[in-house]
Design goal:
single chain; 414 residues; alpha+beta; D-amino Acid Aminotransferase, Chain A, domain 1; five-stranded parallel beta sheet; five-stranded antiparallel beta sheet; globular; binds adenosine monophosphate; binds glycine
Length: 414
Amino acid sequence: MTGLVVLVVGNGGREHALAWALGRDPEVGAVHIAPGNPGTAQVGTNHPVDPLDGQAVAALARALGAGLVVIGPEAPLVAGVADAVRAAGIPVFGPSAAAARLEGSKAFAKEIMEAAGVPTAAARLCLSMDEVVAALDFFGPPYVVKDDGLAAGKGVIVTDDRDAAIRHAAGCRQVVIEEFLDGPEVSLFAFSDGTHVLPFEPAQDFKRVGDGDTGPNTGGMGAYTPLPWAPPGLVDEVVTTVIQPTVDELRRRGTPFVGLLYAGLALTSRGTRVVEFNARFGDPETQPLLTRLRTPLGRVLLAAATGGLADEPPLEWGSGAAVAVVLAAGGYPDTPRKGDAITGTETGTVFHAGTALDAEGRLVTAGGRVLAAVGTGDTLAEAREAAYATAAGIHFDGGFHRTDIAAKAAEELR
Ligand code: AMP
Ligand code: GLY
């Protein structure tokens, strides 16, 4: 597969990291991104194509002679962009719309988990406010209220305030109310070719906007890998009890899952439970994970896209640690400010997300999560220091970041 041409769909930090890692694979000849951002333009060629338009993405892939299309975000997956590209005869890394419902509908995810015997929080789908109130009182506080559809990580609230729980539910079309899961969260990714799976090392994300896990949920404010505190055997356990049964159930239904299955887990006092599934690489976990991955990315993505994972060896990882700190725009996650000039991105490993070039070609903010500063090192403490040193050199008005990403894990290991 010398000279594999890859088209990456999306415009976030995850897509920048994917394009960067693909560019380092000697078997990849060219990396294209649709539409990409100013960061992806440094590691490949951007194309101004609507990522939600399956026909346009398929036409671009054909015009480029792409041998592989990698779809990054959930919205194009749920909209069926993978189906359109697959129908054009081009290998795609990313599930069909039918399989992506695992992320697109929390109620569907619960149905699959029940059918596959996958451990998760007990939950009720509510279609009226009477049902909502009954479910809240059935489970009791802390209340967990989830908008059933896609909400970019912001459709969930966890609160002790019953009135706030009811208000959140009132703003949702369909609501899932569920049992509160205690215990630390782990993000475990696995490649799937529809039948066989290949797990990553685990990572941890920081979902709340503020230090000490305070404030509203966001798309993710930082992440690190590996997790020195994770119990030995966690990955094998999750593959056996969560990942493989889920992939088997979707195949059995005639909607095989081809792409990246993201299990968001809580390690509770009663065992490992699924908090959520995503049908794609997590953001920002992808940035530190791909920084540590040693397996050439193009080859393994193509193997997953073409039913060839059974022949692939386990993924190889660098021995050290990696930490990503998200630099967010003032006002995120509610109303992020835009158009502020950004300086200092030239030093260190920096992945772009909500950035753009203005009319004069200056780099400016253009979204809630603007950049991710990634540091690596032999230990988590060193990786953390490197990430924060890079973050300290970057400036844009109103910008902020959490100061405690990976702090506890780094401290425990000292
Ligand atoms: P989700 O979009 O389902 O991942 O939810 C976003 C975040 O809300 C999760 O990462 C958790 O931090 C929190 N969360 C979701 N479900 C639960 C639950 N059942 N118990 C405790 N926290 C939860
Ligand atoms: N990091 C959480 C997500 O990608 O949804």
